Predict the structure.
Amino acid sequence: MTVHNLYIFDRNGACLHYSEWNRKKQAGISKEEEYKLMYGMLFSIRSFISKMSPVDMKDGFLSFQTSKYKLHYYETPTGLKVVMNTDLGVGNIRDVLHQIYSYIYVEYVVKNPLCSMNETIQSELFRNKLDSFVRGLPFFSARAG
Amino acid sequence: MESRRVHWLPEITRAEVRAKEEKGERPPLSKMAVCIAVIAKENYPLYIKSVPTENELKFHYTVHTSLDVVDEKISAMGKALVDQRELYLGLLYPTEDYKVYGYVTNSKVKFVMVVDSSNTALRDNEIRSMFRKLHNSYTDVMCNPFYNPGDQIQSRAFDNIVTSMMVQVC
Amino acid sequence: MARQGSRGGAESKKMSSELFTLTYGALVTQLCKDYENDEDVNKQLDKMGYNIGVRLVEDFLARSNVGRCHDFRETADVIAKVAFKMYLGITPSITNWSPAGDEFSLILENNPLVDFVELPDSHSSLIYSNLLCGVLRGALEMVQMAVDVKFVQDTLKGDGVTEIRMKFIRRIEDNLPVGEE
């Protein structure tokens, strides 16, 4: 099991943070382009899913998977989106994404008055905390993948 | 309780103190003061109120004279007072018609109360708790963000407390 | 008010409510000194509250685990019973719903911001606790609700209770960012 990469988007679709761990292949386009594509896809999936859902749903969509990777999605009521790509062995990690939001994003970005909330996160502290949090996850393992 | 208020220990909240007072843990005070004054550290009046039937100037004079006694008391028993955290100075001096009592806070703000000397019902303990009540109310005034320390006290709440301690003397 | 680092759950650090009240008092009176008239002070308080609100709501969601509300009534409940309790330690009551269900009042029996405060006559149009309006407005805006918040009664002005009136204006829809096809 392993974690490939992580995106954080704000409510307007700006990518606030990106980091990667065991990513073997790059998209071959600029990072900005990649963020836009990713957000565009998420936005479409989200509205598609809520339109097509046969029952009223509260949490939106949680994840999708291909034959090679699994994309986990978590959105807060304020529209912040946390997206994590892992390999297929990882189960439901909604809690983990919520923890990233509440213990790392809220603590080190929201509560830091010098951190602007709608542009790329510059805080070194935030990066370090996030990195060690992800590395400490039980399904994070550098040798796999 | 009074030292707590004065030293501002955060664990006891003002609301609790107030609740205790409202429950009436001591009997209602006999309201007998004829003049009450608050004097700043630098010895100018922050507040003075006397019963309207009497000559106001006379009380100003009485209070003014009493300040010397206050100073004397503080310097005489200063050390002992600090040790016991005792703020009540007791009877400052009696005149023919009145008794004058004093109280000084740790920040050297003085409270002076003039009582009719014919009023023998008023015991030392009651005077003491009247002062304590005044002090609590004064602390609330200080906590009002619109009050500038050193200004004349114009608070309605404080005024009501003082009025409740005074009665018309016939 | 602040929460313990990244370890803890929902526990919060204790802080003297008097220190909090006095800090807010110092803030308001300083604003009164810096601005000529009370309307400007009210505006500043609202702005500051707004800035607090947009951040505070994130903390609130992180701590409370409250999901998206289905209707305005649920929102009202969460504000009164969870948010006010969490940040100010009081639980206002909700009354006076408009027939359309888009407007209600929060009644605060006891407003912790105004302990000790006596409003001087020279500041009769000052809305002392206007910060709260800004906080509510900012926080709800972040969860896609535009609301109008104002004080209609205030114990500082001699009313029996403090009443905050909240009116739902519209839902803010999120849009695809510009430059996206």
Q: What stands out?
A: Chains A and B do not touch (no CB pair under 8 Å). The two ends of chain A are 7 Å apart (CA to CA).
